[in-house]
Amino acid sequence: MKILCGYNANIDAIYKVDGSQMAEMAESYREEISEKIKDPPGFISSIPDFFAGLFTSMEKGTGAEWMVRDKEVSRWLRNNFLEGSLLRMGGNMGIMANVLSELGASRVIPNVANPSELQMSFFSRKAIFIPDGGEIQIDGSGGAFSTFESDENELIHFVFDFKKGEKFRFIENIISVPRENRFIATYDPLNFELHIDEQFSRYALEHIGEMDGALISGYHLLRERYPDGSSYVEKLNRSLDQLKEWKVLNNKLYIHVEFGHFSSDKMAYDVFNSLFPLVDSIGINEDELAMLAHMSELDTSGILEMDAEAILETAVSLCEVSGPGRVQIHTREFVLSVASDMHLGAEHILETLHFGVNCAAAFACSGKLDERENLLKIASSIGRSKYGKEQVQNIADQIPSGDDGITREDSIFRKYREHFICAVPTRLCGDPVATVGLGDTISSAIFLRELELRA
């Protein structure tokens, strides 16, 4: 499979959060943080903004990505957290490109905003091809604790990884983390612009007839307004024009978009509705689904609690509002696909979802990507989510199977409100080595297996 990948690759600095240490660092800003927690800004323009976002995410056990709007705050993050962070490939596209390469794609062409030596060292060497740069030759370690001098030109995103059960006191409150997740603080001028490399664009046009698919992400990094007075609309339209051109030149090109956590509900809604009729599928998590549901004036109750029936009803309603297409919701406990048409047979759709879930589970337990046979062997020993199985069964109990329904391996295929529904529970590693990028791993593995089955 030959696959184009746009648009966001960066370097993640993964920092394991110690709640008590964070509370101590935040003490001198306690009054400002307390006020901001009451009404979270959704972006970071000050140090109290950062702590408000982190503590809110930890208290709720939810993931979030907030954009850093002040360069001085970015410097403060580097000075305080770069040392001791684990550096690895970051950005939805960067992570997904590596998954595709490691799992057997024949050629993966990424758009790289800043092709520095450090950035390139984190790309897989198996199938990555950089236009005008050729095959990746640098032997990346897949992750290293930072030892280099901080270069402000490197696109580094700080990922604050917190564990379930973490408990600490801030001011007079005890914060107890209900489940593991991460809070991301991102300062990234190039990817904020949805930067499209000229060499990538030229290569894509010259070879579009050879391509099997395109895996696209990075829209969530857009800003409502830029210093030059422009808005996200111009950047979005530039991307939409590129995708439309690819589709015209190759009508068999299968395009999947991985959505991401937006800083603005309105911007998320606009981007979703612009992309949904154009691409073949969009991947989101429960947080992002709740944001879209809110803007569509749909019932959001139960979504963040990962209630499968609530997520199903919301996803189907969203598809009905936004037009024909497919949305794929990946949560910690299960994956749910809702589509207005059958892009593959039922058995094959279930196979692709199981493949994605298995690859992500093996990655969570081992902390690395491997040959797919090894990943699937590891996954076979990892139990399926008990809660996920219960939630999938709840859907099965509510929707009769009919003549074309399938129920097996704790998974289901159904037709509901003129949409095709597939749901599978995830596999949960008891002591995960990696928690960052699991959604991207699931989506890219599903995407690759879909391309193979469509061929």
Q: What profile does the largest beta sheet have?
A: 10 strands, mixed
CATH architecture of the domain at 191-454: 3-Layer(aba) Sandwich
**What's the rounded overall pLDDT mean?**
92
- What is the number of strand segments? 21
The gyration radius over C-alpha positions equals 21 Å
What is the CATH superfamily classification of the domain at 191-454? Ribokinase
* CATH domain topology of the domain at 191-454: UDP-N-acetylmuramoyl-L-alanine:D-glutamate ligase
β-strand percent reads 15-25%
**What percent of the residues sit in helical stretches (DSSP H or I)?**
40-55%
CATH class of the domain at 191-454: Alpha Beta
How many helical elements?
16
Global geometry: globular
Main sheet: strand order: 6-1-14-15-16-17-18-21-20-19
Structure overview:
Its EC number is 2.7.1.147. The protein is 41% helix and 21% strand. The protein starts with a strand and ends with a helix. A hairpin with a 3-residue loop joins strand 17 (326-330) and strand 18 (334-339). The longest helix is centred in the last third of the chain and has 21 residues, at 346-366. It has 455 residues and is α/β, with parallel strands linked by helices. Strands 6-1-14-15-16-17-18-21-20-19 form a 10-stranded mixed beta sheet, sandwiched between helices. It has a 7-stranded mixed beta sheet with strand order 3-4-13-10-2-5-9. Strands 7-8 form a two-stranded antiparallel ribbon. It has a domain at 191-454: UDP-N-acetylmuramoyl-L-alanine:D-glutamate ligase (3-Layer(aba) Sandwich). It has helices spanning 19-26, 30-38, 47-60, 71-82, 92-102, 117-121, 189-192, 198-207, 232-249, 265-275, 286-295, 308-322, 346-366, 372-379, 386-398, 438-454, and strands at 2-6, 10-16, 43-44, 64-68, 86-90, 107-110, 129-130, 134-135, 144-145, 156-162, 167-170, 173-176, 181-186, 213-216, 254-258, 281-284, 326-330, 334-339, 406-408, 411-416, 419-425. Helix 2 crosses helix 3 (47-60) and helix 13 (346-366) packs across helix 14. It has 16 helices and 21 strands.
